[in-house]
């Protein structure tokens, strides 16, 4: 059920992203002829009012299609309602609407939790381990998902995000040096030793961390408190997500191993959903923000790549040559499919059930 819940959340987030593009075009009277969730062959397909809605075999994203993309379209090329014939500002709104929809959805999810479920209490002391990377130091030291770390080398970590940052700083500054962690598992306290891996002078153990939250919520005292909670959590998640992508660009060798595909994302979602509605809300908000930031990158096939072409068009005063656009998009398609396959294989082999089969 936890896996099903995370799959449903992931599907809904993709749906809202594509719905953002669709609504932005429809509201401006721009012609749309397709709305798809997934890629590849259509499993379910239905045409309504000239728009083909479909659910496809590869659940790696989705797309909204326009008559502009069809070579044999019966619509005249100079039709003012075609996307390519609209002013740049209108096209920019359509392109950016998916990102805006995901950001808005993340905030609404947090606001909805605060309004109807309640606000989380003060986090418990320490840091919780969400997942452990196969073959890394954390795994070889015996750490597993669900473990809680209360102190490092005798220093108490405190609570919340500050505890996570303190633990990260201590690990990063202890490359190749043995440190002691106070670990709690099944209410049993134990001191374990661990030596962070030296990665260009920065220590790492290969574990994903989060504040040690609990399942207890309390009613909000006022609407203003809900707004403050939603804004604070949203900005914190957005800032951390942007920092993560920035680290991927500035220090790719250290960050590349942290890349996760759809299999790992679903696994993390299932683990968080075990914590109840609060965990599922955190998963939905975090993935929605990640989809927004990822799609903002100026890469082929992503919204950021389309926006980059639009900016170049605005500077040149005319569109980028169609041949160059095709090369740009095709290279992006190959990169996306290739990376997705690699990540799916990598994440699947790291699942505990698969590891168990290999170790038999």
Mean residue pLDDT: 81
Helix content: 40-55%
Structural class: alpha+beta
What is the radius of gyration computed over CA atoms, rounded to a whole number of angstroms?
23 Å
List the quaternary state of the chains.
Answer: single chain
Biggest sheet character: 6 strands, antiparallel
Number of helices: 11
- Give the CA-CA distance, first to last residue: 27 Å
Strand portion: 15-25%
Q: Which parts are unreliable, with pLDDT below 50 for 5 consecutive residues or more?
A: 341-360
DSSP strand tally: 12
Tally of distinct domains: 2
Give the overall form. Answer: elongated
Order of helices and strands: HEEHEEHEEHEEEEEEHHHHHHH
List keywords for this structure.
360 residues, alpha+beta, Pdz3 Domain, 2 domains, six-stranded antiparallel beta sheet, two-stranded antiparallel ribbon, 11 helices, elongated, disordered C terminus
Structure summarized in a few sentences:
This protein is α+β, with helices and mostly antiparallel strands. The protein has eleven helices and twelve strands.
Describe this structure in words.
With 360 residues, the protein is α+β, with helices and mostly antiparallel strands. It has 2 domains: 1-30 and 86-121 and 219-360, no CATH class; 127-213, Roll (Pdz3 Domain). The protein contains 11 helices and 12 strands. The chain has helices at residues 2-27, 88-117, 137-140, 160-172, 223-250, 252-255, 262-273, 277-296, 303-316, 322-349, 352-358; strands spanning 34-48, 51-65, 119-120, 127-132, 148-152, 155-156, 179-185, 188-194, 197-199, 202-204, 207-211, 217-218. Strands 4, 5, 6, 7, 8 and 11 form a 6-stranded antiparallel beta sheet that branches. A hairpin with a 2-residue loop joins strand 5 (148-152) and strand 6 (155-156). The longest helix has 30 residues, at 88-117. It is elongated. The two termini are 27 Å apart. The relative contact order is 0.12. Residues 341-360 have low confidence and may be disordered.
């Amino acid at each position: 059920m936890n896996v099903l819940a995370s799959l449903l959340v992931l599907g809904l987030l993709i749906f809202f992203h594509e719905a953002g593009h669709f609504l932005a075009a429809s509201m401006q009277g721009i012609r749309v002829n397709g709305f798809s969730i997934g890629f590849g062959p259509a499993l379910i397909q239905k045409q309504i009012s000239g728009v083909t809605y479909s659910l496809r075999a590869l659940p790696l994203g989705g797309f909204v299609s326009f008559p502009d993309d069809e070579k044999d379209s019966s619509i005249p090329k100079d039709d003012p309602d075609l996307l390519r014939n609209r002013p740049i500002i209108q096209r920019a709104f359509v392109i950016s609407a998916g990102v805006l929809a995901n950001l808005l959805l993340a905030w609404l999810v947090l606001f909805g939790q605060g309004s109807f479920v309640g606000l989380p209490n003060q986090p418990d002391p320490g840091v919780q381990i969400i997942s452990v990377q196969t073959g890394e130091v954390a795994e070889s030291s015996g750490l597993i998902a669900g473990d809680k770390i209360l102190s490092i080398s005798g220093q108490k970590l405190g609570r919340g995000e500050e505890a996570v940052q303190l633990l990260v700083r201590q690990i990063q500054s202890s490359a190749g040096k043995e440190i002691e962690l106070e670990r709690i598992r099944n209410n049993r306290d134990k001191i374990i030793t661990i030596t962070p891996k030296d990665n260009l002078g920065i220590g790492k153990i290969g574990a994903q961390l989060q504040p040690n939250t609990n399942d207890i919520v309390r009613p909000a005292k006022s609407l203003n408190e809900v707004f403050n909670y939603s804004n604070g959590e949203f900005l914190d998640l957005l800032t951390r997500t942007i920092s993560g992508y920035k680290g991927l660009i500035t220090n790719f060798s250290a960050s590349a191993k942290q890349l996760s595909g759809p299999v790992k994302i679903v696994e993390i979602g299932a683990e968080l959903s075990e914590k109840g509605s609060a965990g599922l809300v955190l998963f939905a908000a975090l993935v929605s923000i990640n989809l927004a930031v990822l799609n903002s990158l100026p890469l082929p096939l992503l919204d950021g790549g389309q926006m980059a072409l639009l900016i170049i068009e605005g500077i040149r005063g005319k569109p980028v040559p169609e041949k160059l656009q095709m090369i740009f998009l095709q290279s992006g398609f190959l990169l996306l499919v290739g990376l997705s396959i690699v990540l799916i294989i990598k994440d699947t082999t790291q699942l505990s059930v698969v590891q168990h089969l290999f170790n038999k």
